[in-house]
Fold each of these.
Amino acid sequence: YSMDKPEKSSPLAKYHKSIDKKRQLNQQLVDQLQLSLKVPANCPPGFYEMRAVSPQGVSQPIRFVISSLTQVKEEEPNDNIQSAYPLPPLPACVNGQILPGESDIFSFSGKKNESIGIQVYARALIPYLADAVPGWFQAVISVTDSRGRELAYADDYFFQPDPYLLFTPPKDGTYYLTIRDAIYRGRDDFVYRIEMGQLPHVKAIYPLGGNRNDTTEIELMGDFLPYSKLSFNPQSKGYNTLKNNTLTLNELSLLSPPQFALSSLTEVREETMGNDIQEIPRVINGRILKKGESDRYQFHAKQGEQIHISIQARQLGSPIDAAIRIFSPEGKRLKTFDDHPDITQGMQTHHADPYTTFDIPADGVYSIEVYDIQNQYGPEYAYRLILKLPVAHFALRVSPSAISIPPSGTGVFMIHAHRSSAMKQEIRLSLDPTLPGVTLSGTTIAPESDSVVMTLSASGRSRKSNYKQVRLVGKAKIGGEEVIVQAQPAEDMMQAFLNRHLVPTEELLIVSGKGNRMLVESDEADQTIALSSLNPAKIDIPMPLNKWWKTYTQKGQWFVEALAPVTGISAKVTDYNGKAGTLTTELIVENKKDIAQKGNLVFRISVIPSTQKNKKPRFICFSKARPYSFLDEENIK
């Protein structure tokens, strides 16, 4: 369905007719798809990913929630008390959408002193919007009585944009819930879900993690919980730890379960250990309980040792904005460190967890102080202080999570490596399982690289589109052993015109579309391109080779452009050999300091055919990824 040409009889057209006065045309949201989804009765509740599939490929995923609650959908008009949409008996879930300047109002029944939990899911459904500030639907909610008096209000819940409100009715009667955007914006993708009722809600847990081989006693804080403590063992059948450190409490059926980290290190709690760190490596679980409080620990170290010091807190759902100070044996402050960027935390816009490496200047007893830089406190403000010796490890992110390639063409994707400071080894990538007719190019991440562009190429013909779920794994030799890490699929999402985040997804798909283009195989495809700022590098790029393309493009004007993350290189086509199907191209290094010493080069190739002068270049294909390396220019001189 297209908003430009609505069909008058369609359900979507009737829906838009009722809201046309409110809605604003957004070119990014021109097309809409209406579908019917049948959910099996035994489908477990939770977040699921949905994608649209077409002959052109597969879309990025969007989050969809399966719930056992009664589901209702808002109906317009419902923007004042008189037209408020009545909710069924609680617990229930309402689904809605906020349009420009709009507020949605719902009526519900409440009994005196019987509290009701109200949880909004908005950013949890669509994490980032590229063309809206602050980058998501900033929902706020309020509860009023029949006379319009505001009884409760909620905005951010700690650092989470989606509000949660515990409302206790002062008397029996009808109350009104209002949801709107904080600054009265609205558009078609400002969608939300509100769960209401006496539903289990975990506000925080303590500690935030434990040893993977031990049983941990966990304290639960929140509303409508059947218990406040539990014994957790990663190997037990009653509870399970899932990927991304998510702790599933089977008895509670939480839509947003708490995060719980596992480690292989010795784990202690501040309340039982005192202030002396007996040995390193070690994890200290603590929290800031009082105003102005800071937790101080001391450890023995020798000159020349290097210690990695970090905090796990915000990434596990704790609201603490932690910072760390290090003091010498004489009490002199040596170092203060705070926020540390982490590409693996794609849902976080404030990377509040600190990390540093500390070189011991002399033998002695050193002190570490942990505090909240915003002077906040409470039982929810928990942290994990981790001290360990240098260890090489890495994590991988691959984006996009659906890599589209034509049957005889090349698809492009990015691989991002998050390395510890001790991780200096190269990483080699491979598909698991390997796919017949599909070639992975640019399979090495050099020790000095954190992000490289790679390609997947397909050969043969296909009469229809198809897709397959795969894994991308990275292998590195660390300490004489081969370490294998699976790359986490992610979507590279823009927030508010500027910032970008790698948001994790559930699966990695290889998508083959319909087509009949033939690419020339080249012996040079895997050869390293030698770059130098002193002289241009000359390479041959294989091109589509069939009669139609040769006739159409041979006398055209060709363009070659290097793709990010490589910048500072210009490409000039010097010859097109239609018989061999190659573009001879000169690569000129314009700004060496912006280019990693080693990496991959992928080129976007386009042409203005001789029959279409004064036209814009027409995209033809991407080249296969080829490794490059800079020559030793001092020896050349």
Note: DSSP finds four helices and 51 strands in the chain.
Amino acid sequence: MRKRFIRSDGKPLGAFHPRFEQLEPRWALSAVGLSGMAALERIGAVHAANSDLAGESFESAYDFGELSESREVSDFVGRTDARDVFRFEITSETEITIAMDNLSQDVDLFLYSETRRLIDRSTNGGSQAESIGRTLAPGTYYAAVDPYWLFSSNYRLSLTVPPPKQTPGDGEAFADVPWFGGQNEWNLNAINAPEAWAQGFTGEGIIAAVVDTGVDLTHPELLSSLWVNSGEIPGNGRDDDGNGFTDDTHGWDFANGDNRPSDQNGHGTHVAGTIAAANNGRGTTGVAPGITIMPVQVLNADGSGSTTSVAAGIRYAVDNGADLINLSLGGGFSSEIRSALEYAARHDVMVIAASGNRGATTPDYPAAHSAELANVLSVEAHTANGTNATFSNGPGNSVQVAAPGVDIYSTLPGGRFGRMSGTSMATPHVTGLAALALSANPSLTATQLRQILVEGANRSISGSTASGGVNAAAAVAQAASSISRPSMLASNTTWHQTTESFWRPLLARSTFQDAGASTVALREDSGVPVCRTGRALRPTSCTPAARTVDAVFAQLEARAGVDHGFRMWAESGEWLHPRP
């Protein structure tokens, strides 16, 4: 019941409280004041009634200080203790709930700004509990407890804020969050993707190529995630960016040789949705809803294709800025595909591949290459009950993790949704998780990223001999904890030209002018076009003749007196690099 405020002379006061709008110190304070008072305890502590912990004005308010965690206090108000005032500070935008209960008579709750402006109030009648929920900007605030009329009561006051986000360096898994969605989202909850989202990591800024049967380019849940080739003018019949592909606005179709990688099978769209479907409460949600998806079609409408198309698709993804490549496909050994995976490795692009569905002890290719290529990771499937899917190929000597792959609900062509099973469905979970980790720490190399995913795969999967079930709460936290400060580029670097006719790693050194440390400098005025896409320098929107340096800028520590090296790739006669 909303109370009607009455002045002491019996006249209505309207919307304002009779005592608290100005908070004048009209009653004498204790001679002791608050200076000798013990600090209030955290949640769980209860102070004795009638202890009068708080002062009666803004000036004498009890100071909680910075409200970095939830606090609770019990006190008494009424009779000679006319009101209680508590001061607290917020250092970043925070959702806060101020609640008061355990009342025996009518006591009201008010929230004021630092300038003593009334922000909100809770004025329930009788002994009902009071509560104020607000999102507050950084600043100082006051919570005021004021008895209605001449009432008095014990009370319990709690100020509840979300638990603090873990910061890089904690090294521990992110805290659990409530179950996300419904039963269709069991897979997201199984790998703890919502735990990473709660920390602000959604894959934003990361590009993942779906090398598959194509993607439904008009699906409502994927539209916002589709890669757009900014160097291409759509529909003008020209290869504007000089990458060898005309009007490849949203990728390329190597199966049919055109610029429309649109899915006529359903497989690729399902995979794409598991990675990137929008988190909008409709249909389904991807593991990394903030990611960008690059459609690369290498399989035709019946789900088959050539090794040449697959290899070309991998190279296209690398050359056009993909940070990750999802390969939910497999077969026998192919030297063409092996060469393309090595090309991805030289450009520091991670490849996540399906282990296969034969129930064999070893994975199919290309997943089997994870045994010798540090940028490739094999993925098997498990059920909602945490058991290994019987159709999954085992790891053999490969590096393999497990992810949900049975009855996975995701996007289908035509704006539809449906369920599929297979290691093809498990693989995009790991691709999405890799994107979460990269968004937490874009400096990770492909080798480091794979190591983090494997080490973080600490969920026990019954019947599996893989490294374990992937866990975003652990892996992304580890990625975030390993980040360091951004590099700074020096301007006083000496350069010389490479002469090798093959790619080779070079150790680049330059002077970090302010701190005296060594970091990476890449000369961009050498006359060779350079374009930045995602985390790396790529040949996107450059001439076809341009040779590229794939220099993913690591977040190198810039500590005085510490030398750092950085490996980058250079090719025949086209690039200059710093002298060691």
Note: Helices lie at 186-190, 193-198, 267-276, 307-319, 335-346, 423-440, 446-455, 472-481.
Amino acid sequence: QKVPADASTPQDPIVQGERTTIISHVLPEMVAIIDEYNEFPAEDSVFGPAPAPVPPEDDILSSLQERQRELYDDFIYALIVGNLIYEDDAAAYPIFQQLIEQNVDNEILRLMKRKLSGALQNSTQTVINDYVNGIIPKVKKEQREYFMLASNEMELLMELRDESDPFYNSYSARKLFFQGRSKLITRNKDEIRKAIELLKYSLQLEPSMAYTHNAVGIALGKIGRNDEAITHYLNAIQLAPIWAFPYANLALIYKNRGEFEKATEYFEKALSIDSTYTSAVIGLGSIASEQYDYQVAINYYNRALDYEPENIHAMVALGTAYRKLAQFETAMSFYTKALLIDDNSPEIYYRIAELHNHRGRLEEAIKYFKIAIEKDKYFSHAYYSLGLAYSDLQHYESAAKYIEKYLEMEPHDLKALRDIGWVYVYQQNFELAELNYKMAIAIDSTDFEAYFGLGCLYMDLRQLDEAKKYFDQTIINIGPDNRLLILNLAHIYYNGGGDLEIAATYFEKGPTLYTEVLTLATIYFTLENYSEALINFEWVASFHNYRHLKPVIGMGLCYMYLGKFNESEDFLKRAIKLNKRNPVRYFDLAACYSYFDQNKKAIKMLKRALRKGFDDYTIINTDPLLDNIREEEKFKKLVKKYF
């Protein structure tokens, strides 16, 4: 099974959020919190007048009233989330700006500032001014560091609380959330499973966290547990119905399942919440691409770039769409633009490799597949595609090496098990080939292609009984409509020195084309089953209004062996009319006359065959059909004259 051309990672506001999403989702909540906070009179504020010194944090927390404590929690959490939404600290600045504009006590900002690190250690007001002026550079960091920083922030807040405090579990849940999210920045499935454990524990402590349900859905989807992922996305939607992310993530699962109507429904729901949500727009484009409507897909991807000009996912998707349209230079131009924005993205190198592979430039493809792996050693599909590229070059040792590496990560991929089976066959490592085919069957007992591979393997080993057993299983599992593979089985037996009766059995199940029926007729003729041969020769001949030479000859010979002289003579004469210059046609009629004791006609027709150039001395002297005339003087004179 390769990575789908337009696949994208499920969206999470903490991983791939867009500027529009933080404004539409986080800030309205912040404004509501700020408005509620401002309902308290200034003199009731624990901070007192603005010039007053900031009390120690423990004094602040201990003196807050219940609602004020809750507001404080939300401020801290919203700021941390805001700081994590992008891959740079600039994400937090809009929240600071909103707080300032709402005249929130500046001491709160200072308290928050002390809770953060990095760029936010600078003067808060300077940071805001720089952001407003548009001169803040993006400070990229490893996403894992962000999540661990957030987890540490929760740890600090927990230290200020007693376990009996109702807020303690909330902090603990959020700490687990950030720890779990830190383990999702990878394709390493062991890390993902650990993330699921942490995130589910977080949900036990705080089951109403939509962010956590969304993250659990992402994690489950990464390891193929899609039904469970759907449940968590639906929970997130129920808890936060005006949050676009879980709608788009749910749509992505349905899209990958081929349920395009449901996928479209949920992508459109996401867009109804945020009309410029680029991930949903790209998702709709990927559905169009899956349905081979590449121009519609391109329109969606361009729309995404209108909203977010540096969205590499849209650029890569555009490149892939143009590749499928065979517009290779245009495709490469989009991949190149994406690389200029992010030259560490393994996905971009992978798509460039696919482009070279599609154009038959296997060496270049191998080069870029390897770069993708260097960028992400857990990029399983890059190993698989690299192995297939080596297989196309007939470098089977390298092919086996990389497909094996893929199967270490994806051990239940049936196609990969079958592919490596064929690679081992080419290496004549039949034991490993057999093992992988049988592993595929153990995973899916209806995998007809694995049965077919085993059948071919045993044919190569001349274990014909075993071959037939697995070919029979192939037919049982393939169903009656897939005649092509059944015909392949017939040809394997017919051309591979197998049992002709078995070949005939497969041809009977498979023929739809006259060429296959003609082969079946020939098999029956060879098996001296002239009645069945005649039926099939007749079908082909009638299909061509009796102007196809081979079935006409076959009918003539079948009638001869069935003892029907008049019919045999009639069709062998038709064969002569269809090909008057071929001396064999005259010989066939001579044999027919001899078979029916029409010796005079037989010698006359044999003479015409010899005049036309028939020169097979062995057949003339050994063919039993001429036994009736071989002792006649005229026959001997003809032989002496022409040989």
Note: Residues 1-9, 11-97, 103-143 have pLDDT under 50 and may be disordered.
Amino acid sequence: MRKLVIIGIFVLNYTFSISQPFETFILKIDSLLEKEQQESALPLIANASKLAKQPAEKKRLESRKYFAQWIKETQAGNDTATRLLTTAIQSLAQSKNPDPDFKAILFTQQYHYEAYKGNWAKSLEIALQLQHAQEKNPPTKQRRTIDLVYDIGYIHDRLGNISQSIENYEHSLAMYESASKPYENDRALAHNNLASKYSLIERFDKTIFHYTQAVKWWTKVVLKDKSYLVTAYNNLVYYLLEYGDYPGAGKWIEALNKGYEDWRNEPNFGTKNTLGNANATYKIRALHLIANLRYCASTEQSALAQNYLDSLRNTYLTCPIDQRKAIQNHLLNAHYLLGGMFEKTKNTIAAKQYFEAGLALAQNLEDPLNVMLMQSGIANLLNTTGQHETALQYTNASLSYFANQNKYNSSHYSLLILKAMSMQNMGSHQQAVAFTEAMLKRLMKELNVGSYDFDSLTISNLSQINSRSVLRFTLNAAMVFRQASTAMPASKKEYTRKALHLYYLAADMFALYYQKSSYTPQLDQFQKEITEGLLYFNTSQQNQDTKAISKAVEIIINNSNQHLWRQFQAKYANRLTVPESLVERHRKLKASLYLFQHPMKGDTSTAGSTQKIAKELADCEKEIAKYDRFFVQQASYDFTIASIRKLLPHNQAVIQYFVTDSAVYGVYIDEDAMVLKNLGNAAKLQIEVSKYRYQISTIDPNYQGAASSIYQSLITPFAKVPGQNRLLIVPDRWLEMLPFEALYHQKAGKFLVQ
């Protein structure tokens, strides 16, 4: 009886299927093909062919039959089955039916297949064809349109097209958010990928925002494998620390630790699901440990950091051998982080031990990238302790990683300049300079920006790779020429010119960097080094060039103003009333205008574009003014000496001071003169100012001696001060605590205010 019942059910189903309309068959077939259930789809295609009356209907089924056969062949590993897919596409075209849903399934499989083979350009071409077709005939399922936009973003991502990738990810995210279903996992993926792309262009504000959103949406998804979620936590902590937000990183570490304890109590924790590999327990534990270790190393909690390293090592040793690959990089990174922590705290012995242990482990695991990183860490450490010859040996060893490198790599150039500085520290100034020159020539060649000419090396050449690592490289190269100018008097003029050129280039890079990226504490040091370099060389010239000094001072002040504004934005972005889209547009237009105003040598083709962008920028600023009429003024960095002079009435002057780590500088400006002076050693002057402030606070009757000494240092070098009726003073750093009006002119027997 049971057998008859089964047969009866089969007959009833068969009879019901035959009697259904043709389009119902099509829907069922497409549903099966989308799930790659071709064995179930092929009998339905055969049945549906009995209902097909028109040639167009037969072609539609034929297309599905070839597609099903293609899936079957590719699953069997037959790479020659491409002809079946081509025939399926041709049959669909011959049917002259838009068939938007099946076309979406067919083309999606096609561009996925090309991507699987690594043909990303071909994959993009097919995806864009599908997008064009969907603009005319959209599929019935909104999800297919959204997924296509996301996939195009991902393909651009793999091709290295960062701006197009960001654009499509942002678009897909907006579509997911407006869809009728929540699509939590898809939104999390889009946020996660956007964070990754923004990190590449060093927009850490957006990086942190999107990783935060990824964590938020993945937390809402019931995931057995939490590795994606824990990775997002890890990245969030990393970039908060990079951004200098230690309390923020601490809060996310607390959330991660609490979540980790809760997840461990879930049934089947770490088992396989669609988002992860089988048994991800060890991988998740390693991610959890490295996040905590990174936080402890950054906040110099050495004992806790070492405990986390021990736990990470134990996790690596106890996990199945086939899963160790996923954990070994975290273990190596832990050694590097601890080495860096001890280097930062001046414990060079412990730092070297961790770098060397990491190096031995990387060599044992045959991991060339981490071998290079550990060697470079040791080289840096040895340079700081004066062991320059050994440092050079480690630098040369680490450079072997890039032996076959033909394309630009920022890490490569960081090591090359480290080698040049090691040579210089050993007294080989001529060799260091020649090596640096060759390095700059190689950089120009790799960037494909024309033949090498030191003086034509401009921001336009380097704008495509402008980043903190390139800024550091440029400043270090400037220091090589600067030290050579002192050590080699015969070539002082040439090396001074080259060092100054690189400092100006670094200043341009610093200004442009802020138009695409965001504030990080590391930029404080860059700002100080650029300021000090420009001031040092412009005050060391025997005959001061007023035009050159004006340029240097304007750059310093404008960069300083922009730096302060970006710091403010980083801390108080939520208080700004201008829409982010307008702020972004303003940044991009400012960046474009800056580049057109600083063209490559001999390029005269930018005049028309400059005028067009200037007009667009003016229109954008008018739009911004509707929300906040002070925004553009606050964000401005268009200070000029000429504009200050116009504001100064007769017998009125300004002195602006700049405090660097090595010296104090002052620039005097009145209606017809400008003077820049090096006013002396910063540390010595700071001691004098502290002593003077203490004498005043304790009513010490001998305070006039200190007041006179400071007057001699800060005021006397500017001979025209006594002749002015009014003096405006702009102090810097610890000079802001100095009561300038109480400085004493001993010869005249008067205080400055008198």
Note: The beta strands are 652-659, 663-669, 674-681, 726-730, 744-745, 750-751.
